[in-house]
Amino acid sequence: MRSVSLRHLGRLAVWLPLLLLGDGSPVAPSTPPPPKPEACGHCYDNTLKVLVYAGIEGPIGDLYRRRFAVVGIDPTEAMLVHGIATHRREEFRFGHAWIEGNGIVIDLTKSHERPDWIGPKAEYYRMGRIVEAECRRYSLAEIEQHVQAHGHAGPWQPLPDSVHLGPRGPGRYDGP
């Protein structure tokens, strides 16, 4: 099981009542998620956080494990997926990350606290025009190895030159 730093407790303020112990002191785990590179999309960081938080002992981990259970995914069998999606309106391809398990996809593009999309894998792949052969799945053990080797949340494999990641023009695109 992993832990999370006090720095990240502020991001979990929505769940503050669940983070208090019997004596009223906050849970103070110690290991923050790895930093993400400047060009990295939020989806990589958010998916990694959720999988790490689900492995934490105590109230934070319990909360995330309950969330996985509600959608029918065993967090110990959930896979982090790095792949390439196509923007629905602008037609550009971009590196993307999501969680899969039991035929269900959880997309956490904008926030690790509230999914942008939960539903059947086939529908998600159809909407994002995701090609199975362009996806790379990572188990919890592989995630830990890649984070230690690369020092960030991904992507860990090179993306084709035609694929965008991070800032696009004056704004930033986050999600299909």
Put the structure in a nutshell:
The protein is α+β, with helices and mostly antiparallel strands. 27% of the residues lie in helices and 18% in strands.
Structure report:
The protein is of the alpha+beta class and 176 residues long. The protein has one domain (34-158). Helices cover 27% and strands 18% of the residues. It is built from 5 helices and 7 strands. The protein has a 5-stranded antiparallel beta sheet with strand order 4-3-2-1-5, sandwiched between helices. It is globular, with a radius of gyration of 16 Å. It starts with 15 loop residues before the first helix and ends with a strand.
List the helices and strands and how they pair.
Layout: H1 16-19, H2 42-53, H3 59-70, E1 79-86, E2 93-101, E3 104-107, E4 117-120, H4 121-128, E5 136-138, H5 140-150, E6 167-168, E7 171-172
Antiparallel strand pairs: 1-2, 1-5, 2-3, 3-4, 6-7
List keywords for this structure.
alpha+beta, five-stranded antiparallel sheet, two-stranded antiparallel sheet, 7 strands, 27% helix, globular, disordered N terminus
Tell me the strand percentage band.
15-25%
Order of helices and strands: HHHEEEEHEHEE
How many domains, as an integer? Answer: 1
Strand line-up in the sheet with most strands = 4-3-2-1-5
From the N-terminal CA to the C-terminal CA, the straight-line distance is 32 Å
- According to DSSP, the number of beta strands is 7
Taking the sheet with the most strands, its summary is:
5 strands, antiparallel
